[in-house]
Amino acid sequence: MGYALQNSTYTLMQRFDAMTKAIAYLRVSTEDQHIENQRAAIRAAGFDIEREFVDEATSGTTKGESRPGFAAMLEYLREGDTLAVFALDRLGRDALDVLANIQALSDKGVRLVILKQQFDTSTPAGKLALTMFAAFAEFEHGLRRERQQEGIRRARAEGAYQGRKSKLTDEQKAELRTRYAAGECRAELARQYGIDRATVHRIAKSG
């Protein structure tokens, strides 16, 4: 199933007189979908794709950072780069994953343009939306943590809670804190240590 290239998709980009260089991220979930439709949409929006990263036949339930193309893209991107994607759902498996990835891109100083949702972090409206996204992510994270804590309290009351062992040794945690303090990207640290970004943040702030 392909994506329809609708004129309304490109309203956001009509202010550009010349082709804007961009990194493109393309993802399809099944083998009968084609990345060419997404590539064509990005070019039609006025972008000159200087490099692209692709994940084909990748499940939408897989976290962004666990996809090889997405992980390579995060490592490649530098401050000042522009990343163009066709739709918001290309960036993650669920709302929290998408929001975390948007925040990771913002932390790297990357401009993000999402064609279908007409979202551009270089505009005042895009920056406002980014702030709202961050607030929503924090709210959702709080709800999940509250539900988790309630489950732990219930399990403890029933004598069933054993706790969870940390994936990292004390030495690895100390190393992570040092690298985080030196300014290394949270997403890249998460990938290297095999943990999620929230855990990176928690360990970095616990020292």
UniProtKB/TrEMBL annotation:
Q: Which Gene3D superfamilies match?
A: Homeodomain-like, Resolvase, N-terminal catalytic domain
What is one GO biological process annotated to this record?
DNA integration
Q: Active site: which residues?
A: 29 (o-(5'-phospho-dna)-serine intermediate)
Which superkingdom does the taxonomy of this entry point to?
A: Bacteria
GO MF: DNA binding; DNA strand exchange activity
Q: Which InterPro entries match?
A: Homeodomain-like_sf (IPR009057), Recombinase_CS (IPR006118), Resolv_N (IPR006119), Resolvase-like_N_sf (IPR036162), Resolvase_HTH_dom (IPR006120), SSR_resolvase (IPR050639)
Which Pfam families does this entry report, sorted A to Z?
A: HTH_7, Resolvase
- List the keywords (alphabetical): DNA integration, DNA recombination, DNA-binding
Q: Which residues form the Resolvase/invertase-type recombinase catalytic domain?
A: 21-159
The UniProt record lists the keyword Calcium? no
Q: Report the sequence similarity comment from the record.
A: Belongs to the site-specific recombinase resolvase family.
Q: Which protein is depicted?
A: Helix-turn-helix domain-containing protein
